[in-house]
Amino acid sequence: MTNVINLTPKIETKQLERNDFDQKISLFSKVFYHPLFRPYFRLAFLMIVLNAYIFLNADQTAAQVQNLILLNFGVGIFIRQQWVINLLFKMATSAPKSWPIKVRWALGKVYHFGGIHIGGYIAGTFWLGYFLTQSMNQGLTSLNVLLAVHLLVLMAVMIVSLPQIRFPKHNLFEIVARFGNWTSILLFWAECFVQEGAIFSANKVVLSYLTFCVALPWFRLKRVHVEINSPSDHAALAKFDHGETPFAGSSTELSTNPLFEWHSFANIPVPGEKGFRLTISRAGDWTGRLIDQKPKKLWVKGITTAGVGNVELLFKKVVWVATGSGIGPCLPHLLDVKVPSKLVWSTRDPRKTYGDELVDKIMDSNPDALIWDTTANGKPDLVKLAYHAFKEFEAEAVIVISNQKVTFHVNYELEQRGIPAFGAIWDS
Questions:
Q1: Cα(125)–Cα(144) distance, rounded to whole angstroms?
Q2: Residue 22: pLDDT above 80?
Q3: For residues 114 and 139, which has the higher predicted lDDT (pLDDT)?
Q4: What's the whole-model pTM score?
Q5: Which CATH number does 13-32+308-423 carry?
Q6: CA nearest 278: which of 324, 331, 233?
Q7: How far is CA 5 from the centre of its chain?
Q8: Domain 222-306: which CATH class?
């Protein structure tokens, strides 16, 4: 049996020092690469600034404010559309690898597009409040007021629901957002028909497109067969064979109750095999029930959508850093071998938790993988392991797949040191 541990428990400090791990970091780097100043928030700030400029430099009638409301929410919905997301990734990752590393580093942040989404929603909420004030002062119809109040309350709930509040109640937040958005679109349509006599208008065209964007994933809603095997009580491997085999770096949304709860997982296609797999770890009630009950069918909707792992295409060599079930999103890239890569994986008892088949696939595709068994060796310093692997492998970037705390920490520490680092930003 292949030896899973491919490193000694200690990394020589002197070797890391030779790689300048303890280099002095400038104040600019500490601030610029801090998670609070990541591109996601810069894009959101840009959207808000653009709207502030419009507000301060132009008088707005009620009709113009309504247009700005629809435009901002429209941009927010448009940028989240699955086809648009795939197009953004395609455009960003098509840059030649001969381009300067800083340009490719910036393009690799394409997955921060959610900043445009939240920026548009914040700006739209501001215009809603302004419109409500206008409605009260100018005696507009009760439908205008109803639309404004409904949307204002909905947007305020969504914006105030910071991650500390949203994550523990994520399912409730999704339900409020989903049904609230549907109700909002219905109210927009009602308001359009009441206020506008014309059958055809610019607002109706925009609203038709937004309605189509929201409805499109549901046109592909279907219940499909799934085969779930559990190597351990902690993890499950779900195998699907419906439709076309998805591309590496994509994800699929699953549900047992499609109106109320959806969960996204990275697809693991295996070259030469039909279908794909997903790795699912026990991370809450829903995943726990899935592992224990092993349903024969699950709901899927929409199309497979590009994720952060696709940014590997911008670089000549990459290091993948994963913890636990984070190996799932990494595995298709390791198997596909489009980009030379080295894996750093920290997990408890890999073979016992995830099974021999998965671990053997990893070792076959990445013989030099650095796999750290936390059961035997305790938790490692992932920053130092990632830094060491980056220097040793002469990579151009690091992609981190872990929980939020670890991902933000490792990315921040590496980017301060001038290493392009990427990872999920939990903006859904």
A1: 15
A2: no
A3: 114
A4: 0.84
A5: 3.40.50.80
A6: 331
A7: 30
A8: mainly beta
